[in-house]
From TrEMBL:
<dbReference type="GO" id="GO:0006144">
    <property type="term" value="P:purine nucleobase metabolic process"/>
</dbReference>
<dbReference type="InterPro" id="IPR047233">
    <property type="entry name" value="UAH_cupin"/>
</dbReference>
<dbReference type="GO" id="GO:0000256">
    <property type="term" value="P:allantoin catabolic process"/>
</dbReference>
<dbReference type="InterPro" id="IPR007247">
    <property type="entry name" value="Ureidogly_lyase"/>
</dbReference>
<dbReference type="Pfam" id="PF04115">
    <property type="entry name" value="Ureidogly_lyase"/>
</dbReference>
<comment type="subunit">
    <text>Homodimer.</text>
</comment>
<dbReference type="GO" id="GO:0050385">
    <property type="term" value="F:ureidoglycolate lyase activity"/>
</dbReference>
<protein>
    <recommendedName>
        <fullName>Ureidoglycolate hydrolase</fullName>
    </recommendedName>
</protein>
<dbReference type="InterPro" id="IPR011051">
    <property type="entry name" value="RmlC_Cupin_sf"/>
</dbReference>
<dbReference type="InterPro" id="IPR024060">
    <property type="entry name" value="Ureidoglycolate_lyase_dom_sf"/>
</dbReference>
<keyword id="KW-0659">Purine metabolism</keyword>
<keyword id="KW-0456">Lyase</keyword>
<dbReference type="GO" id="GO:0004848">
    <property type="term" value="F:ureidoglycolate hydrolase activity"/>
</dbReference>
Amino acid sequence: MASPHGQPGRPANQGTARRFDHLAAIENLRPGHAALNVSVFRCAPRSSFPLPLALLEKHPGSTQAFVPMNARRYLVVVALGGDRPDLTTLAAFIAHGAQGITYRPGVWHHPMIALDAEADFVCLVWEDGSPGDCAVVEYAEGERVAIAIEP
């Protein structure tokens, strides 16, 4: 997760701000083919738990970073794996609105899950518009892992 908490930073803007650099690496493994896409995801809140995971996705050629604009809390779900997620490595945690998240290339993850209220996230990812931008594995109803959280 990207957060300036605990970092010293450095003065900026004639002393009216502190700048926290290099909090996350944004990798492009397809130079010359992909362009940086800066977008906003507006996510409806999920309030029904446990949440069965219908799919996981990964971006093989790019880091994908999310910066919350107005989120209170959101759920992050990740897993390692190659062609398919290794569900024995599945991990979930709650992030708060002052934390960004960066998925390294090839890390399986669930799409953003806003908690409490609708939330906007700035997203940065290198894409070229091809099917190689995003790999998705869908799970049939009987295969789904359910994530439960405390309210």
